[in-house]
Amino acid sequence: MDSLLTEIDHVAIAVNDLEAAIAWYRDVFAASVEHRESVESDGVAEALLRVSDSYIQLLTPTRADSPVAKYLEKFGEGLHHVGYRVADCAIALEAVKASGARVIDDLPRPGSRGTIVAFVHPKTSFGTLIELVEDPQNH
Ligand code: CO
Questions:
Q1: How far is the CA of 88 from the centre of ligand 1 (A)?
Q2: What pLDDT, in 10s, does the model give residues 80-136?
Q3: Domains in the chain, number
Q4: What is the pLDDT, as a whole number, of residue 64?
Q5: Residue 82: strand, helix, or coil
Q6: In terms of C-beta distances under 8 Å and separation of at least 24 residues, what long-range contacts does 121-128 make, across chains too?
Q7: What is the Å distance from ligand 1's center to 78 Cα?
């Protein structure tokens, strides 16, 4: 069977100050923002910086009760999750659940950029929060 994971979609980094992080990536790496979005349901604002066919996703909370705000409180700034591209989020999520791994999203849901996503709990994935990303524009 082929791997369900087709590419790395993004590496997400939680930061306190989104503008400062964007400026740092620009000044140090000459990396520029390709897309910005606030996802109100998740209480986050993100900036995507392209690296070849993948992204660095800088992530900051937009409200105090957002999961990313809690993450920053607990762990500080740094690597938050890895987003893997999958051909079909629903199929990949079912395979993950069938394997006995713990998931955060029981069903796929809308992500940013028109993607369909589901999160896998770090508890059974060796400490890494994993996001399964189906990108209809990147198949
Ligand atoms: Co993500």
A1: 16
A2: 999 999 999 999 999 999 999 999 999 999 999 999 999 999 999 999 999 999 998
A3: 1
A4: 93
A5: strand
A6: 124/100, 125/101, 128/81, 128/82
A7: 14
